[in-house]
User: Fold Homoserine O-acetyltransferase from Hallella bergensis DSM 17361.
Amino acid sequence: MPLRLPDRLPAIEILKKENIFVMNESRAHIQMVRPLKIAILNLMPLKITTETDLIRLLSNTPLQMEVNFMKLKSHTPKNTPVEHMKMFYKDFDVLKLQKWDGLIVTGAPIEQLDFEDVEYWDEIKEIFDWARTHVTSTLYICWAAQAGLYHFYGIPKYPLRKKMFGIFRQTPLIQDLPIFRGFDDVFMMPHSRHTEIRRKDIERVPELTVIAESPESGVSIVMARNGREFFFTGHLEYAPDTLDKEYKRDFGKRNDVEIPLNYYLDNDPNKSPIVTWRSHANLLFSNWINYYVYQETPYNIDEIE
Assistant:
């Protein structure tokens, strides 16, 4: 089954070329089913790229979903056309009046700021608190994961000596969790960050469980509230060329840019990236939608609490 998306969203044509089945609103209206309602708070600078990355993964499920994009009133994006934001995004003040089966909160390039110094921190806290009573399950990605763990559980972040940049091997720690159904003993996850959270802090909080980690990149997935919250420190949603674009964008402009590890063929940036994470990324998002959203959300969406 396809995703139900706003008419003329750029991701639709991009994904159709990849033979991914998506459906615009006009066609979806004739299907007599209740689609899952998924909201995405997209904090990344390149909105269209992130929209496409997430929709690509959400589409790999037999369930129909209605996807809505959320924006902040306290922040104006600088890298996305105003027309795009007006056409496809709605303020939190509008979307908060509804309940949602799932919510995804993306990363943001602000991790080196203290949380309280982020211009939209107050609004972010309001959204996080709202999600606990209005959303069945929420995925927090990268900066959002650090922000959520800090806001709800007081977990601090720490600056890294150098950027965690590349594709790193992860181990699922609780193999029989539904989120890992069909997983191998190890999986790969892209990382691109300057800060980290630490297991010792998480272990002090009984409500939190580290469910995947790496000897190189550390804690990668934390679960809370029996799967109503997941915190990913990496970017399983990344497209094959995302790290390549980031590396070539920053090379020669910053003094801390290194070749992303475990990414290029023969570790040579002049060669193509080797994609090692996409199958598990598709599987994880499908498992989240099936086991933690679809199987848990009430048919009457207003009963979410």
